[in-house]
Amino acid sequence: MHLEVQLTHAPIPASLPPPAAAAGAGAWVEFRGVVRGEENGRPIAALEYEAYAPMAEREIQRLLTALAQPHPCLAARVIHRLGVIPAGEAAIYVGLAGRHRAETFALLAEFMDRLKLDVPIWKRRALVQMPEAGRTDLNPPPVGAHGGTRPTPASPASAEEVRTLLARICQPLDTERVPLAAAAGRVLREPVRAPEDQPPFDRSAVDGYAVRLDDPGPQFRVVDEIRAGDWKPRTLRPGEAVRIATGGALPGDGLQVVMKEDVHAAGDTLTVLRRDADRNIRHRGEDARAGAVLLAPGAVLTPGALALLASVGCVSPTVTRLPRVLHVATGDEIVPPDQTPARGQIRDSNSTLVRAFLASWGIAPEQRRVGEDELLSRPEIGPPGGEPDLLLISGGASVGDHDCTRRWLEAAGFTLHVTRTTTRPGKPLLVAQRGRTLAFGLPGNPLAHFVCLHLYVRAALEAWSGRAERTEFAPGVLAADLVGEAHARETFWPARWHLQDGAAMLTPLRWRSSGDLTPLAAANALLRFPAGAAGLTRGSRVEFLRTECGS
Amino acid sequence: MRVLFFAHLKDVTGCAEMQLDCAETDADGLWRQLLAAHPGLERFRGSVRLARNAEYAGPDTRFSNADEVALIPPVSGG
């Protein structure tokens, strides 16, 4: 059999002529495997593939040769594309020529099955958004490349660019099964289907009497009583009625339930006073048919969703595991909150802020306080065994003499993706990666902490969680002037939002310095103030991000 | 010996390849050295196949210093 095998980073051509060796073929079969627009229930823009190229080519040839024994064909052409492949484009092309269609189809089917078992090609990751051309700092190399070259210092990034980067490099974490009692707020990762029709039998929607639809009455004899939970199938004869409670299983088909308010009952004699077309039955399968997807992957397990799972007996749903988080508060000037600071010292409020923020995600971080000198003297700061998924380092991130977070990250082999942002507060922000660990260097002051946690850390947590819906900026209306605040950089103001006449009204909570804590106590939103804007007056349209716990 | 890592194993080891200096050995001996260098690989050992010079290794395959060895986690092409 004539073989052509090709691994390429270029798009696979839309049409390819059969190879010359296919002359005389009775069948020319082409297959294209196309990247779908969703992965694990989440919309994606692209998939990234990698291969151990020399071995992959050899394995494909070996496979085709082996499969040609039972299914003799004339020619085969296989092209597998590698790298980033946008949704809708082909990842693999197989063209097969044979004398007859039977062996050609058979070879194709078996080849595709075996390819997925033996050929060293991997779907590396799903990309939520396409990489931006020319922004090498926001297009990080495959993780783990730190062993070689040190990346060039990243150029300043906007808040949106950092959020996009995080959404891309944080792929949904592994799954685990948890009992329902521990599943609140977690993200479902498997479809949950109705095991049987919902409701599983015809049941009465009211308290009343079941009679035959074709029995005009109005006199009936009550022959039985059905309560919710009873199962008493029977065939009603003309003139018979069965008393039935709301939720009770109908005794048979072809019935109607007359509301008890519409009858006069004396002993077992029933007189129907009023009868309309409504059968007052909730029919089997009315809510969902057996096998129908009740909850899709990516659903957040709210109290209502958990109740639905309980109702179908799904008692240990498969959810995304929680990330392991290590938070390190650095700085020589902080003391624990229960101590009285000496002159020049301050209480550590960031550790409490971080803990409470993570608690709304069900995450309990490991927390430490480390002096700057101590930090720099240690190559590892985590507990022994088990790299955290998320490392948050507070303080020590200001450019200058106290830039110890960055020095520590570099010394520990982290690749720095973001070293400066164009937004305030929140400067300087560090985003770095080493293996599976994502690290943030957060500016030491509490306001910047608050902003960075909600803008960036939340973006990472949401991406890791695999949830279908992400928190995005929402449109709102300024409830007070925000003038005289023109600044060259995009600014985020803590704000308070409330609904008024269907619009989200935002009251900015001004801060004087980014160490100012008082606005945070009242904030339930972050208000985006565009770069270069001269000022916004009351009634201006703005964008905001909600910051309520768990939102 | 040149050892190659692919897919999520790169995240585990933090590198795409490494040099290993080793006398001729079998798969068990090779795994001992790999785990000494990257203990995080332990939990993936059950699902990873070894390849020697771009061919899957068999139970009797011996590995020597001149070989290119690849750790092949479950594949997902197509």
Would you kindly provide a written description of the structure presented here, covering whatever features stand out?
- Chain A has 551 residues and is α+β, with helices and mostly antiparallel strands.
- Chain A is built from nine helices and 37 strands.
- Chain A has a six-stranded mixed β-sheet with strand order 16-13-15-14-18-17, with no helix packed on it. A six-stranded mixed β-sheet of chain A has the order 25-22-26-30-29-27, with helices on both faces. A five-stranded mixed beta barrel of chain A has the order 31-34-33-35-37.
- The longest helix of chain A is centred in the last third of the chain and has 20 residues, at 446-465.
- The two termini of chain A are 60 Å apart.
- Chain B is of the alpha+beta class.
- Chain B has helices spanning 8-13, 27-37, and strands at residues 2-5, 17-19, 49-52, 55-56, 68-72.
- Chain B has a five-stranded mixed β-sheet with strand order 2-1-5-3-4.
- The longest helix of chain B has 11 residues, at 27-37.
- The mean pLDDT of chain B is 91.
- Chain B is built from two helices and five strands.
- The A-B interface holds A 33, 49-52, 54-56, 58, 80, 91-92, 112, 115-124, 142-148, 387, 413, 434-436 and B 4-7, 10-16, 40, 51, 54-56, 70, 72-73, 75-78.
